[in-house]
Queue: 3 jobs
Job 1
Amino acid sequence: MTMSGTQITQPLTSLLKIKRANDIAQAEVKASREKARLTGNDVALAVHEIYYRVLIAQAHRSATEARIRASQDLESERIEQVKFGSSLEQESIESRAQLLQAKQELLTTDLQLDDLKLKLNDLMGLPLTTVLDLDPVSVESQETCPLEECVTTATASHPEILEARAEVEKAEAAVRLAKTDIWVPDVEAFGRYSYQNNVPFLARNFGTFGIHVGYELFDGGRKRAVKREHEAQLAQAKENLARLTDEVELAVHTAYNKLERTQQMLQVSEEIVDLRSESNRVLQQELLQGAALKSQAAMATAQEYDAKTLLLQSQMDYSQAHDEFSHAMGLTPE
C-alpha cells in the first residue's frame, strides 16, 4: 500500500494579528515624524534667539564705544577746568571712573559677543571659528489670529500633541492585539491533495479541504497580564495627551500676551529714539555755535546710541515673542 499527499495551510488568525501590529508600527512612524518636526522647531527657535542676542550685543557695543568717547571728552574738559580752578579735582576723578567703567563694560560686551557667536555657530552646525556677518532683522508688525482661534489651531496641529495622539493610537492598537490574542482562537484553512494505491473503496486521487481551530487553555493568565499592561499604557498615554493639551493652551496664551506687550514696548522705544535724536541734533548745533561743550554733544550722541540700542532690543524682543508664539502654535519660526 502506498499513500502520499501535498497540503497547503494558510493561518487566518495571524492575518488579524498582523493588522494590529501594522497599526502599532504606523502609530510609531507617525509619532517619530512629529517628534522630528518638533525638534526642528526647537532648533529654529534657538537659532533665532541667539541671532537676536548677537545683534543686540553688537548694538550695545557701538553705544558703549560712543559713551567712551563722550567720557574721554568729559575727562579732558575736567582736567582743564581743574587747572584753571573752575572745577574740583573730585569731578575729574569721577569722570575718570566713568571712563574706566565704560571700558570695562566694553570688555564684558566683547566677551559676551564672542560666546554668543560660538553658540550660534554650534547651533547652525558650523565650525566654531567661522566668522559671521549678520544681516539686520526687518521688524514689521504682524497680524495674528484671535486668541481662541489660535488655541484651537494649536491643539489641533501642534507636533507635540500629534505625537501624543500617535502614542494613544499605538497603545489602543496594542490593547486590541492583546484582546485578539486572548479571545480569538488560532484558525487555519488547509487544502490537501492525496494519492493512494491498493486501498479499497478509496479513489486513487482525491482532495480534502477544511479549517483547523486551536486554542491554548492554560495560557490565559499570561495573556490577561499582557492585556492589563497595555491598558495601563493606554491610560498613561491618554493622561499625557491631556497634560500636553493643557500645556500648549497655556503656552499659546503666554506667548500671545507677550507679543502684545512687546509691541507696546516697541512703540515706546520708537518715541524715545525720536526724542534722543532731536536732542542730539540741537546740541550739535549748539556745539557749532559755541553754546555747548564738546562733552555735552558727545554725551547726547551716546544717549542717542543708547536709545537706538534699546529700540533694537525692543525690536528683537518683539521678533522673539513672535517666534515664541509661532513655536507655541507648533509652527517653525521663519
Job 2
Amino acid sequence: MNAPIPPVAPAAPINTGLTGAGSNLAKVLNAGQFAVCVEVSPPVGPNVEAIQREIKTLKGYGDAYNVTDNQSAMVHVSSLAVSIMLKQAGMEPVIQFTARDRNRLGIQGDLLGGAVFGINTILCLSGDHPIWGDHPQCKPVYDMDSLNLIRMARMMRNNQVFENGKQIPKIAPDFFIGAVENPFAPPYDYRPLRLAKKIVAGAQFIQTQLIFNVDRFREFMKRVVDLGLHEKIAILAGVGPIRSIKAAEYMKNEVAGMDVPDWVLKRLEGLSKEDQAKAGQDICLEIARQVREIEGVAGLHVMAVNWPAAVPQIVKELGLYPRPVV
C-alpha cells in the first residue's frame, strides 16, 4: 500500500516584481499607442502549410496574435503548438488557456511550456461548454473558473509559486495576463463588475466579444469608465468582418453570447456572394471606427473567423498599419 503524500508546505512569500512588461503588446499599450491584436485560428487537422499561409498573411498587421484554444469547443491543433510557430516566425502570440479542457495541473504545465519558448502573453478564459461543440458527449473539466485561472497565473509570476503554494524553482514566468469580457451577455449590469473582479485577480488587458450592437457596447464602456476600470486595464474591443449572410445568421442564432442586430442581416440580404463579403467588411470598418472613438477603448481585437485574408485590408483602411515598433 502506498504511503499518503504529505501536504506541500507553502513557500516563503516572494515578490518577484515582474509585470509582463517585456511583452510587445504591453510595450505598445504602455507607450500610449492604440493596440491591434489579430486572432489566429489553428486548423482542424495537422496542416502545417495552412498555418504557414496564415502567418504569411497576418504578419505585421498586429502587435500580438491571439491563438485560440479548441475554438467553439471543437477540436483544433493545440494553441501551444501554433503559438510556438508564430514565435519562431517573429510574431508575438497571445496563447489562450481555457479551463474547460485541462485541470490546474495541466494548465500550469502548459503555462510553463509556453514560457520556455518565450511565450508569456496569455489569455485566460473558461471556454465554451462542450455541448456547443463537436464532442457534446465529453466531460468538461472546469477545475477552476476564469477568475481563478487569472489568479493562478498572477501567483506564478508575482510570487513564483504554483497554485498549491509550492515554489517554482530558479525563475518565475513573466506573464502579461489577459482575460475576456462579453458586454452582450445578461445580466448587463453585472458585466462591468465581473471585469472589476478580473482586474483584482490579476488581468492586465481585456478582449471583448465581437461587437455588432455598438449601443450596448457604449453603455458597457460608460459604466466601465464611471468605475474607473479603464485606468486599471487595457480594453481591446472585438471587431471582425462577416463574409456572408449565412455566417451572420449562424452567429446570431447559434453562437452563445453573440448579439447580431437585424440591421446587419438586412445589409447583406439580396446581395451576391462577392457583394456580401464587401458589405461585411464595410460593416466591420464602420463599427471599428465608432468603437475607436469610445472613451476607455485602448485597442482593437480583430477576429476574422475563417477569413484571415480580410485582416490586412481592414487594418490598413483603419489607418493602423504599419504597427509601431516600441
Job 3
Amino acid sequence: MDRDSEKPAVRGLAAFASRDFRRYQLARMAVIIGAEAQTVAVAWQVYSITHRPLDLGYTGLALFVPGLFFLLPAGHAADRYDRRHIILICYSIQVICTVGLLAIALMGLRNVWLIYMVLFFIGTGRSFSGPASSALIPHLVPEGHFVNAVTWGAAIFQLANIAGPALGGLLFTLPLHGPLEGGGIVYIATLMSLVWFLVLIGSLSVRLGRMEHRAASLNVVLAGFQYVRRSPILLGSFSLDLFVVLLGGATALMPIFAQEILHTGPKGLGILRAAPAAGALVVSLLLARYPLHRKAGHRLFVCVGLFGVATIVFGLSRNIYLSLAALAIAGAADMISVVVRSSVLQLATPPEMRGRVSAVNSMFLGASNELGEFESGVTAQWLGAVRATVAGGIGALIVTGLWSVIFPDLRETDELTARALRMDLQSELQSAANNRTHVASK
C-alpha cells in the first residue's frame, strides 16, 4: 500500500485514511448497487414467467454450482496471481453476462433456462473474484485499522443493499414503453455500475504480485481446507453462518411475500429486500464509532439467535410494517456476526494463505446464500412460503444452541486482534497435538 497516499486518521474513520481503501469501497458500493438491482429484476422476471417458488430457488442454485466446480482453483489463483488482476477479469465477465440479461429482456424471451445459464456464468466470475477480493482487503489498510476497515466495508455493503433493491424496484416499475420496460432499464443501470467499478479498481496503486510461489499441487490447493479444519474458531464461524443462513434465509421467497401475502408488488419487493440492509447499516455505523473490544464470540452467538427469532416473526407477519421491522432486526443482528466472522477470517490467517482460506469461506457463504435460496424454494414448494420461513427460523435457533456447545473456543473468543486470534489458534493446535499423542501412547 502507498503510505504517501494516506490522510491523517479520524476516530471511527481510520480505514478511509488510505487512498486505495477509499477507491475500492467507492467501486464496491457502485457494483453492489447494480448487482442488487439486477437481482430484483431477475427474481421478478423469473417469477412472472413461471409463478413457481421452485424456479426462484433455481436462481440461487445457478449462482452456487460454479463455486463447487471452481472453489479450489479460485483459492489457489488468489494466492498465486495478482489479486487486482483477477478481480478485473472476473468483473469483465460480469459485464458480458449483464449484456446477456439485457438481450434476453430486449428480445422478450420467456425461457428461464437462458436466464439460469447467464446466472451460472455470473456465479463463475464470483467464485474467482470472491477469494481475491477478500484477501485483498488487508493490503489496503495498516493492520491496526483492519477491524475498522471490515466494519466500514460491511456498512458500505449494507448501504448498497438498501439502495440496490430500492433502485431495482423503482426502475422496474417506471412507466416506460417498449423494450426498456421492466428488466431492460435495470440491466442498463447495472452495466453502468460495472464500468465504474472496473475504472476504479484499475486505478488502485496496490501491487501484490503472487504470494504463493509453489506450483499447483493437491497439497498446495487443499491447504486452505486443512488450515480451516485444524482451527475450531474458523471452522465453527464458517459452519455456523452456513447452517443458520441456509435454514433461516428467506430472501428468495420475498417475491411471494410481496405479491401474495403483503400485496405490495415490485416496489414492495425492493423495500423488503432493502430492510435487512437498513438495520445492518445502523449497527455498522455504531460499530465503526464504538468497535467491539471484548466478548466477540459471546456476542456472535447472541446475535445469530436474534436473527432466527426475527426470521420467525417475519414469516408469521401479515403487516408490512411489522415485516419490515423484523427484517431490519435480522439485518442488524447479522451485521455484528459479519464483523466478527470477517475479522476472525483475515486476522487468524497468514497473508500467504488468505486466498485459499477465503475460498473455503466463499464456499460456505455460497452454500448459505445461493444454495439457501434453492432450499427456500424447495421447502416453500412443499410447505408454502410462510411455513418454510418459520421452520427455517426455528432451525436457525437450534443450530445456534448446538454450535455454542460444539465450538466452545468460538464462543469464548474475546479480542479481535491478529495476535490474540493466532495465539488462540496455536493453543488449539497444541492441544490437538497433545490429544493425538495421548491417544497414540495408550
